[in-house]
Design brief:
Layout (H helix, E strand, L loop, with lengths): L7 E5 L2 E9 L3 E5 L10 H7 L4 E5 L17 H15 L5 E6 L1 H11 L6 E7 L8 H13 L4 H13 L8 H8 L4 H13 L4 H7 L9 E6 L8 H9 L4 E5 L6 H4 L1 H15 L1
Helix pairs in contact: 2-3, 4-7, 5-6
Amino acid sequence: MPTHDLPRTLTWQGRTIAWDRFGDGPPLVLLHGTPWSQYLWRPYAEALASRFTVHLWDMPGYGHSSKDPAHAVDLGFQSEVFGHLLRDWGLERPHVIAHDYGGTVALRARLLHGVQYASLCLIDVVALRPWGSPFYRLVREHADVLQQLPPAVHRGAVEAYIRTASHKGLTDTDLEALVEPWTGELGQPALYRQIEQADERFTDEVEERYGDIDEPVHIIWGTEDAWIPVDHALRLHAGMPGSSLALIDDAGHLIQLDAPVRLATELTRWTESVR
């Protein structure tokens, strides 16, 4: 799976946000999580572009977007960014597919920033307490020190961390594409900075309101997710009356890479039902 740049940019509050749009049909927006980027969604975006106008973007602090150390990259800010993007793109009720903490971004934008969707698909999302691995807790306590790790040691730590998100194992190509944005003078501190700013209060603030969402909601989860266990899918489904749930066996948190055919099939089925 090759790495693709995002050729378009826009600037908001000093951040440069990389994005792209392609395809034809109703608008659909894909949200990545952490420590990911639009890379995970690119093949799915290209497939969905036959039926939708697909919008891809990298959140500030991620991928090809700016990584200024002075800029906040917490979940509260990212949800504000998403609301601004939808207004800038002129999208009033897009279909939204979100992974990992992109789920929190979409949920907060819906509940706190007046955004509405045609439908919402949540895939192995950060939405319910508790979240954050032991690695997250370590980083929050020692972010300043970890930013100064020798580059080779840092790369080894990031590779080991990212490998745990896959149940089946990653190819060298995928691993390199996922690790590379977090290396170098900008990438290394950016990784620890965004983890340091992660906080459960951003989901606590909206969790009790998930049942207020009246758009069609579909939840997809890998049964072998070691980062956000499958019981979160069951709890989220129970807290969102009217939502539907699909569990994908033998897939971990990186469900896009662990089960690409089954995920693509499920996304096709879901998007056809709400198009």
